[in-house]
Amino acid sequence: MAVSKVKRAFHTLYPLGTGRGKVIVAGMPKSGTTAIASLLAKAIDENVCSDPFHRLDELEVKYREHLFAGDFPLSRLWRAHRDVFSGTVVKDPNFPFFLDDFESFLPEAKRVFIVRNPFDNIRSILNRLELPADPLHGEHKLPRFARGGWFHVLNGVSPDLPGNNYLEKMAWRWRISAEHYLKARHPLRLIRYEDFRSDKVAQVRQLAADLGFKATKDISGLVDIQYQPRGDNSGSYEAFFGEENLSMIEQIVGPQLEPFGYGE
Predict the structure, then answer these.
(1) Is 62 exposed, middle or buried (0-12, 13-18, 19+ CB in 10 A)?
(2) Range 134-141, long-range pairs (CB < 8 A, 24+ positions)
(3) Could you tell me the sign of the dihedral formed by the alpha carbons of 108, 227, 126, 62, in that order?
(4) Can you spell out the DSSP letters for 60-99?
């Protein structure tokens, strides 16, 4: 049931607490955040809150432009809509832009950053949205993403990102997300999507332990559930993106590849 305006006003004033016992999961779209957050919650027998920003969009809450412009802090949005952000494990692809904010208003919450090889990450997004790797041949398909989360990702707005087309904007989103992680004032637990894929059960159990939880539930029967449609990641990057587009992505993400072990 929707929370009344009176309760929203009350929620805005009522303190959030320290975040003790809560886990914040941040990462790019299609980087494994949904699967990892869901499996972690299952393993520790807690509830998961997935994509609260998307849920606010569905409720037609007007917040993105003002939030990303810095007109008000994330803590204010969280307090006013704490029912939407409710959960022990909370994940959203917009969270990389607010890593230090969590330190200020939920200082005891554990924070996890998930990263995926940017070339695979961008290819997976394009496959998911059925968009070509060459934006010149994909512009006519963009009108169907006229609103919602994918609109912001593809158009690089809220947050505003550099780039002249959706391919450049996604490359910049990956790089800036990575920079936020690397510049965070306090360390986050890092998971590479590739390491998660190598042994999902072991990776999730270790993550739970590192965060101070005990993995009490068996998730071995859940690890192969497709939380989002599977993309086709076969073939070389050059064959998929084309030489010019691949070079452009490399120039943008290149400075942040080595810290995550994606350098040559």
Answers:
(1) exposed
(2) 134/167, 134/242, 134/245, 135/165, 135/166, 135/167, 136/165, 138/166, 139/165
(3) negative
(4) T---HHHHHTTSS-HHHHHHHTTTTT-SSEEEETTGGGGH
pLDDT at 6: 44
Contact by Cβ (8 Å): 167, 244: no
User: Is the alpha carbon torsion for 217, 30, 68, 64 positive or negative?
Assistant: negative
> Tokens for 65?
């432009």
Q: Let me know how long the chain is.
A: 264
pLDDT in tens, 99-126: 999 999 999 999 999 999 999 999 999 9
- Provide the whole-model pTM: 0.92
Mapped onto helix, strand or coil, the DSSP state of residue 17 is coil
Q: How many beta carbons lie within 10 A of that of residue 36, not counting itself?
A: 24
Residue-wise pLDDT for 215-231, tens only, equals 999 999 999 876 666 66
Chain CA centroid to CA 171, Å: 14
- Cα-flanking dihedrals φ and ψ of residue 241, to 5°? -85, -30
